[in-house]
Amino acid sequence: MVAKTPPKPDTEASPATIEESTGTEALRQVRTETVRLGKRWRRQVLPLAVLGGTHGIGAASASLAGSAALVPVAAGWAGAAGAYGYAHRNASRWDRAYAGLAAVGSAGWQAALALTGADGITASLLWACGCALSVPYWVRHAEPDPDVTAELATPAPRTALPVAPGTADMRVRLWDEHMAAHGKSLPGSTISDIAAFDYGWKAAITLAIGEHWHTIMSARKAILSVYNLPDGRVFVEPIPGASVRTARITVLTSDPLQSVRRWQAPSLDPATGTFPIMTTADGELLHFRFFWPGGGGTHALVSGVNGSGKTKVLDLILGEAVASDRIVPMVVDGGEGASLPQWKDRSELFAETPQDARTVLRYALRLMDRRRPVLKRQGGGSIEPSPHLPLICIVIDEAHKLLMDDEDEGVNNKDIKRMCEKLTQEGRKFGISLVLATQVPSATQLGGSTVLRDQLKGGTVIGLRVAERTSGNMISSGAPMPEGLHELPAEFADGTPTRGLGYVLTSRMIRARSLLLEDPSSVQATETRLDPDSAAESVPTLDGRSDLGNEESTTPASDADEAGDLIQKALADGIASTDIAGLMNATGLTLGQIRRAVKQ
Ligand SMILES: Nc1ncnc2c1ncn2[C@@H]1O[C@H](COP(=O)(O)OP(=O)(O)OP(=O)(O)O)[C@@H](O)[C@H]1O
């Protein structure tokens, strides 16, 4: 193997060349140092430069004869006037006065030197007076400019992202400087696709690698501050199907939800099973679902404090239901007939008391059984609501009163809870849906039933304003909420109440407000009959008795009869008479009811 020898340089540097290059290097260093010092001390040197210039102009003029002597002075005066003009535009009042004095002084000395010659007493006086006039300037600029040589040699990390060429949009500049810059809330992020709409604008945000769009949620307060907006005007949502590093922000420059939007006419779409119930802050409509085409009925929960507008939301649901040719509404008014009185004569059944509520729920359970053969005939699946086989929609206002026990009052509502659980678990495919209204969207208000909570979350969940932060809030989908329901304001900026304001549990986590159906009696009802199988079940009569319905203490004879019927059916379905738990599940009755019915 032959070892490679490094190639010799073509020419060896001679000592003379080395000396020459060392001298050039020294000169270069002196020049660099002079420039550096000049830059650093330029303010302090300025008065001396002005004095030197004045002296030079005077000397030049004195050395010329005739009219040529006027040329340097004229140029000098023009220079003095220009310097003053510059100072006038860029300086404060006192600095302007000072610059004016210096300009006039310089022009005067130029003329004096031109006339008397630029040496001797006149020149000495120029320098003496000039230095005296410069003292205040030197005092003021005693500090040299900071030495940034080192920083310039190694550039500091960028503090602001460059603005895209040709981007005149202030929103982009603000984002780049105050959100995306190094050390700000979302460093390295970009804003794009800005599009205006009537009440503000939307944009796409792309975060730096390693970030998730949830971090934009936590930066909402900073965004409000950067764009100088009041609270509640920025919403962040993921872009469906796009990377987790991207999100869409909606920025409201005015609040469209402040103005009431009225319900116009029934608009249930049989092809989708939905109708518009709320309008979002960016003008989109959010829908309530009665049923899934091909998937049976869906359940719903509407929650909000007193006065938040939840009964009005129920009015909308009932309005669409009575106007539809494929929905039969039944109402349980937990407000003892005072919450939804307009629907008394326009719904199939209207319960005002807990006892009547039980009767309605039991009737619904029996209808479920009546519809079993229908499903068998159609070969399984689920009932598709139609004018011949309508959806049975049971709306329960103030449901928490009927679902929660009250030990102090000796009220045991477990049977109601069990019947509701059964209806939500099994009613879907039989075309039976339950719409519950509570004050807080939590399992506690559903009688502690996690079954009800889980089943209702599969349908439409509407959360209006609540008074307190709640644990187990059902208005959450895994993504962070823009704000808690307890954080919703009670009033808009103009002082009007925010009734109907809230969120719908959908992929759109943005504030919305329910449409307002002012006069429920104005809704034109469509007569809808139950299917023949369901119609074979006798419709119970509701007597409106107002006892609190503690089932364990009182069970009227008619209820015992009904309980007996239910038990007979369960036994016929193959449940053993000794299987008490099975009987309770199948009938929705309490242990006491079963005992009493069996005794009778
Ligand atoms: N979307 C809305 N837009 C404008 N006003 C509304 C809206 N919803 C409700 N309101 C107004 O708020 C009032 C109270 O609404 P609603 O009766 O539905 O409240 P609530 O939550 O059911 O209270 P409560 O439980 O005390 O009955 C209504 O009379 C109506 O005037």
Automatic annotation (TrEMBL):
Gene Ontology terms for molecular function: ATP binding; DNA binding
Domain FtsK intervals: 283-471
Xref: SMART domains: AAA (SM00382)
Binding site for ATP: G304, V305, N306, G307, S308, G309, K310, T311
PROSITE patterns (UniProt xref): FTSK
The organism's place on the tree of life at top rank: Bacteria
Chain spans, region Disordered: 1-24, 521-562
Coiled coil stretches, renumbered: none
Entry keywords, A to Z: ATP-binding, Nucleotide-binding
InterPro entries on file: AAA+_ATPase, FtsK_dom, P-loop_NTPase
Descriptive protein name: FtsK domain-containing protein
